[in-house]
Specification:
The protein is of the alpha/beta class and 416 residues long. The chain has 12 helices and 16 strands. Strand 1, helix 1 and strand 2 form a beta-alpha-beta unit.
């Protein structure tokens, strides 16, 4: 089977960096040096909140613009997307509630602007054999007032489109990465694939614990006693009924085979992570060091607090939060990086510089390293602020890189 890929919500190309084991780029052309042969036939990246498109500009600089799209994915005619066998992307966590169409009682419409429905439309129109997606870990629990509804609707949508699904919440640092970043990874496959037939030989527990994509590439501790929760999506007429009635406790690992969900809590087989000190650069520019005023501000932001506040309704309450390490521990992996990295806020990393031992923020290259991108990957005309934002919005490419070996075997078996 040809290893053809479409990348949605591509950002600066994290899935492609991971799948094609990209370690750098040609200094003269700016083009990425790709060490694997996954063929990315089309990619879409569009940022609705700004006229400038720095993520798309970075993507097209590193990979060329010939197969890159910079328009709202919801406006794309899905039939015009090139045929592909693997669909990948990191999409936003949104409200996936659905309702019956006003004009067609037999139809179902998702909330406008929810990008998962664009994924669902591609599944319907292009029918890629395999899908690999990334989302925040809270996806499994949203919305808070109807826990698990959104993820249940997603699983039912895959099922209705002819797919089975496996998922795992992975903290990258548990498996040797540079950053403590928990994300939900979803792998789906069409029921007519050889891969699906292969999995027929295993129980749901064996898929989750031993034989699925995530178990083989991200091993878990074996259990003496297995507590498996089962959820039957077939008892719901459609996702409209699920919007009104469904709630469930999805645990950090699971699969959905023929509409039957099996989920359990797994514990990773921990691997030593890369430490923050091994990410840091030497001879850092003075602009990244903190002024005295900034040091004092960060001391306050990162310190413990108990503050009396009054709500709009006039109720008095106490806002409290615990302190966090300041500066960050260099002998641990980096904390989860947010899009606000580098600004004066509680979540920004503050480190003791290796050479001067003065306190400073990270550099853009260090932010890239935390996400396992090549150094200066985003140095394509962006400001430092934009580069930090891109990395806070990206995924740990190392996780995708670890999936690649197993995906190759799956594709080879399809040929057999």
């Amino acid at each position: 089977m040809e290893k053809t890929v479409v990348e949605l919500f591509a950002g600066v190309g994290g899935f492609r960096v991971g799948l094609n084991d990209i370690k750098g780029f040609d200094e003269e052309t700016g083009r990425a040096i790709e060490n694997r042969d996954w063929e990315f036939v089309w990619a879409n990246q569009w940022e609705p909140s700004t006229k400038s498109q720095p993520a798309y500009d970075c993507y097209s600089t590193r990979f060329g613009a010939e197969h890159a799209s910079n328009v709202n994915i919801s406006e794309v005619n899905k039939a015009e997307i090139p045929d592909h066998n693997l669909l990948v992307g990191g999409f936003p966590c949104q409200d996936y509630s659905v309702a019956r169409s006003l004009h067609n009682e037999a139809g179902i419409t998702g909330k406008k602007g929810v990008l998962f429905w664009d994924i669902a439309e591609i599944l319907e129109v292009k029918k890629p054999f395999f899908v690999l997606l990334e989302n925040v870990d809270r996806l499994l629990k949203s919305p808070s007032k109807q826990r698990g509804r959104d993820f249940g609707i997603m699983l039912r949508t895959f099922y209705d489109k002819g797919y089975n699904v496996e998922w795992r919440v992975i903290n990258a640092a548990d498996y040797g990465a540079r950053q403590r970043r928990r994300r939900t990874f979803i792998f789906a496959w069409r029921k007519e694939t050889a891969y699906n037939k292969k999995l027929d030989d295993f129980t749901r527990e064996e898929i989750i614990l031993n034989n699925g994509l995530f178990a083989t590439q991200f091993p878990v501790e074996q259990m003496d006693k297995i507590t498996l929760n089962r959820i039957d999506l077939n008892k719901y007429v459609d996702t409209v009924q699920m919007t009104e009635e469904f709630k469930a406790n999805f645990l950090n690992s699971g699969c959905c085979i023929d509409g039957i969900v099996s989920t359990l809590k797994t514990t990773p087989q921990f691997e030593s992570p890369i430490l923050l000190r091994d990410v840091l650069q030497h001879d850092v520019d003075e602009k990244y060091y903190l002024t005295k005023e900034q040091e004092e501000k960060f001391d306050y932001l990162k310190g413990p607090k108990r503050i009396e506040r009054t709500s709009r309704e006039g109720f008095t309450y106490t806002f409290s939060e615990g302190g966090i390490a300041n500066p960050d521990n260099l002998d641990a992996p980096g904390r989860t990086m947010l899009t606000s990295e580098g600004t004066v806020n509680r979540s920004t990393h503050i480190v003791d510089d290796l050479d001067t031992h003065r306190r400073r923020i990270l550099t853009p290259v260090e932010a890239e390293r935390l996400q396992h991108f090549p150094d200066n990957w985003t140095n394509t005309g962006m400001t430092d602020r934009q580069r930090f934002f891109m990395m806070g919005n990206a995924l740990v490419t190392y996780v995708i890189n670890r999936c690649e070996e197993y995906l190759v075997k799956i594709f080879e078996n399809e040929d057999d």
